Amino acid sequence: xxxxxxxxxxxxxxxxxxxxxxxxxxxxxxxxxxxxxxxxxxxxxxxxxxxxxxxxxxxxxxxxxxxxxxxxxxxxxxxxxxxxxxxxxxxxxxxxxxxxxxxxxxxxxxxxxxxxxxxxxxxxxxxxxxxxxxxxxxxxxxxxxxxxxxxxxxxxxxxxxxxxxxx
Length: 167
Ligand SMILES: [Fe+2]
What we know:
- By secondary structure, this protein is mainly alpha-helical.
- The chain contains five helices and no strands.
- The longest helix is centred in the C-terminal third of the chain and has 35 residues, at 131-165.
- The protein is elongated.
- Residues 23, 53, 56, 114, 140, 144 line the site of fe (ii) ion (FE2).
């Protein structure tokens, strides 16, 4: 890490950069997940989250503008690994139900990572008095939580069951 972490403001900026890199990586990965999902509702969930992810990127860019800073210069290693694991599923042989269940599991790991990041960021923004950023980060956090919930519902409603029957 290039910057000395001696104030919450600096931690805030480094974590914003991390989130930005994570979202940009996810923008590349989501179309692949969408195109490889067998279940139509799962495809829709990935497609909708792709749209939301574009907005998440733009919100972070807006926050950086207000800080007179740029989100470049950092690559989120965690998202790199999470995406890699998700893409491993794409190369697997198997039945549609089980593969979809595996895609959901990979995508939920991504969502939980993002939920953790945005939860921290929103709280830092609040403490630092960045009111507009609090609102933007809160909006993104809610969308990540809803995306996660939607995946849970798809898994529990029928996709996990499908994975148990199609052996
Ligand atoms: Fe996001």
